[in-house]
Design a protein that fits this description.
- Two copies of one chain form a homodimer.
- Chain A has nine helices and 14 strands.
- Chain A is an alpha/beta fold.
- Chain A has two domains: about 240 residues, Aspartate Aminotransferase, domain 2 (3-Layer(aba) Sandwich); about 100 residues, Aspartate Aminotransferase, domain 1.
- In chain A, the strands form four sheets. In chain A, strands 2-10-9-8-5-3-4 form a seven-stranded mixed β-sheet, sandwiched between helices. In chain A, strands 11-12-14 form a three-stranded antiparallel β-sheet, covered by helices on one side.
- In chain A, strand 3, helix 4 and strand 4 form a beta-alpha-beta unit.
- The longest helix of chain A is centred in the C-terminal third of the chain and has 22 residues.
- The radius of gyration of chain A is 21 Å and the shape is globular.
- The interface between A and B is large, with 65 and 65 residues.
């Protein structure tokens, strides 16, 4: 049976990427060597690394003012690396709290300067994206989490402001076009739309750096990684390779504008079914709903287990909601085909008939 | 043609590991899902992670006083994480400088306390391991680099001392038995004897922690990772999976005592050929020679290029020496079979004949 993987991350990647990655593990481009054993200083890997960077630059139209880094440590490491590198001890950074990840970013940043939390939807279970707050023009940056994996909300647009935006795009990068020039830093763990777990994309604008006067350990210093072109130490070779393959797939798909249409279509048919189906209701406020993570509940909590069982029987894997929200979550990242979403909808309809 | 991979790291892994890893990328244990797409919270991955830890514990006979962590960021991150977590600001740590990596570890540690460099072989091109130095009994720890990848030297035994040893074993872990109880911390980037690049093994003794009173970012705090069982954030799933496969292979081989014999045999036949062959000479002092990285020179520098060409023609890849030493370096880690070393020896003998 075909398994449809709705996991929130690590998550589905295109089948063609799995095929090519497996081939690279056995024999990379007929070199007679595995991608797992070649030196990161080898011509083969340098070409892979350059190609991966070029694909990021092309797909997101990254301006020349921004550096593209592949680091390790996950987005969780960026929570403290951003303020460590960019926020002077006497400076202020503005944060919007839209969920668990924003909240962790705020906690980690507090040791490096003044953190001004402009708005939070915590009291309402993070069901919406706060709006109508004033962004201080003297803050060093505004930090946002573009998509909230756990709660199923997403910034549909980014606030206008004079200060640079720093954005955790872990769960929706490459899902739609963004104007990178407006961002001081974009960071993203790979394991949703870019590749497997183990590499973190950081896009950082020149003018964000060199201003804090701190003594930063080499491995935590963006400027060290820029100087070393992400090769100051041994990079996570295989996760970067698979990211390159995934970005090649995205380019072949037509790029971020084409995938945006596909993502909007997938999200629309699923949210429509949740609205139509008498057994379910959506979690997030309509205008802020995520196109990546669709959160929903059964109206009768007794039906949770039977629905999950039916999902499993129908080949829909990873639909259980995060423990802090409950219910269900269907993560429908770039690599999820429309047929996967249709399979889930079909299970929901079958469930309604069975219960009805 | 069979390619023999003598790269210093990332480096050769067993062929059976490549085969199983490729299968896991396509379909993990007949789950219908790829190892690249499953959640790190899935039953499948939790079992992999537990098994990897159990194999480390069994192969190295890690006592219950020590925690086993799989982190990201490479050994280079441990250079500052060790003193950040373990060295009080008014404390002293003792370091022995045996090469580039020790030297980086010293540089990164200096911001956290007093660093006492007990001995260094830098003035002699790091050709030997310093001995006969006094280890201060009031230092917090003694830091060593067990094997020096670039210079081809290795501690054949560890100094007797009352203070805990912290050891960077990146390039010889799992190559021989060690008495883990003597070590406060052992750390190792995976990409030599454990797996592919992208995961770092840290074995840390309970009593090394909780004594510095510093405000440590969550992702840099060993205690956070211990509490989260290396899952505080999304771990590098695939590198951990391949590490598990490699450690299974090592167990099947007979464990670290069996591989030690094989490693000593491989090193012996290669060093013997360097001594016998009129064209070559070894770099490192005999008593300190590494069983992992064999460094050697051609006596006539004009012959470097022709020898490298012949290596290539003979399927011996990655033999070029590090730029700071020159000449050649054959890395003969656990996964290098005797036949690989014999192939290199055969090229050396053929070269001697050609050169007359």
């Amino acid at each position: 049976m075909k398994i449809h993987n709705f996991s929130a991350g690590p998550s589905i990647l295109p089948q063609s990427v799995f095929d090519k990655a497996a081939q690279g593990v056995l024999n990379l481009d007929n070199s007679g060597l595995s991608i797992l054993e070649i030196s990161h200083r080898s011509k083969d890997f340098i070409a892979i690394h350059e190609h991966a960077k070029a694909l990021v630059k092309e797909l997101l139209q990254v301006p020349d003012t921004h550096h593209i880094l592949f680091l390790s440590g996950g987005a969780s490491s960026q929570f403290f690396m951003v303020p460590l590198n960019c926020l002077p001890q006497n400076g202020t950074a503005a944060y919007v709290d839209t969920g668990s990840w924003s909240s962790k970013a705020i906690k980690e940043a507090k040791r490096y300067g003044q953190i001004d939390v402009l708005a939070s939807s915590k009291e309402d279970g993070y069901k919406y994206i706060p709006k109508n707050y004033t962004i201080p023009s003297d803050a060093t940056y505004l930090h946002l989490t573009s998509n909230n994996t756990i709660f199923g909300t997403q910034f549909q647009s980014f606030p206008d402001c004079e200060i640079p935006i720093v954005c955790d795009m872990s769960s929706d990068i490459f899902s739609r076009p963004v104007d990178v020039s407006r961002f001081g830093i974009i960071y993203a763990g790979a394991q949703k739309n870019m590749g497997p777990a183990g590499v973190t994309l950081v896009i950082v604008r020149n003018d964000m750096l060199g201003k804090v006067g701190r003594d930063i350990p080499s491995m935590l210093d963006y400027q060290v990684h820029i100087k070393g072109d992400s090769m100051y130490n041994t990079p996570p070779v295989f996760p970067i390779y698979v990211s390159m393959l995934t970005l090649e797939w995205l380019k072949d798909f037509g790029g971020v504008s084409a995938i945006q249409k596909a993502n909007e279509d997938k999200a629309a048919i699923l949210y429509d079914e949740i609205a139509r189906n008498s057994l379910f209701s959506a979690v997030a406020t309509e205008e802020d709903r995520s196109r990546m993570n669709v959160t929903f509940l059964v109206n009768d909590p007794e039906l949770e287990k039977p629905f999950l069982d039916l999902c499993k029987a129908g080949g829909c894997d990873g639909v259980k909601g995060h423990r802090s929200v409950g219910g269900f979550r269907a993560s429908i990242y770039n690599a999820m085909p429309r047929e996967g979403v249709e399979a889930l909808i079909s299970v929901m309809q079958q469930f309604e008939k069975q219960m009805g």
